[in-house]
Specification:
This protein is an alpha/beta fold. It contains five helices and seven strands, in the order βαβαβββαβαβα. The protein has one domain (6-127): Rossmann fold (3-Layer(aba) Sandwich), CATH 3.40.50.2300. Helix 2 packs parallel to helix 3 (63-72). The protein starts with 5 loop residues before the first strand and ends with a helix.
Length: 128
């Protein structure tokens, strides 16, 4: 059996992680968790990835570093930043750094579906 298309996730909140993993699984996507930039680089080299979701802080960097790693991979993969803060500053920082979009916590399935559908559509279009 072939591997499903991967979506990389750095989400440390258990409830939001469950929401993400469940939604992706229901849409025939393979959620793969990562916690560090080292893991992200390795996964980008090994797997076809259509989307990256990350929190503002990782163990060894932040969302700006994630955006840089993805850009250096020379693949057009959308990055969506998730955050427990729904402040305008957090949203603007993510968007100015080059994120595709921003999802505040708690992640609601309706918002997740809208953002991820748009991001996946963009990713698939860039791949063809």
């Amino acid at each position: 059996m072939g591997r499903r298309t991967a979506v990389l996730i750095a989400c440390f909140d258990p409830q939001n992680r469950r929401t993400l993993v469940q939604w992706l699984g229901e849409h025939s996507l393979e959620p793969i968790l990562f916690a560090t930039l080292v893991e992200l680089r390795e996964l980008l080299r090994e797997r076809p990835v259509v989307l990256v979701l990350c929190e503002p802080q990782l163990a060894d960097g932040d969302f700006r570093d994630v955006l840089e790693v993805v850009a250096r991979s020379e693949r057009r993969i959308p990055v969506v930043v998730t955050s427990p803060k729904s402040e305008t500053q957090e949203y603007l920082a993510a968007m100015q750094a080059g994120a595709f979009d921003f999802l505040p916590y708690p992640i609601r399935p309706r918002d997740l579906e809208w953002v991820l559908s748009n991001a996946l559509h963009r990713s698939m279009a860039a791949a063809s």
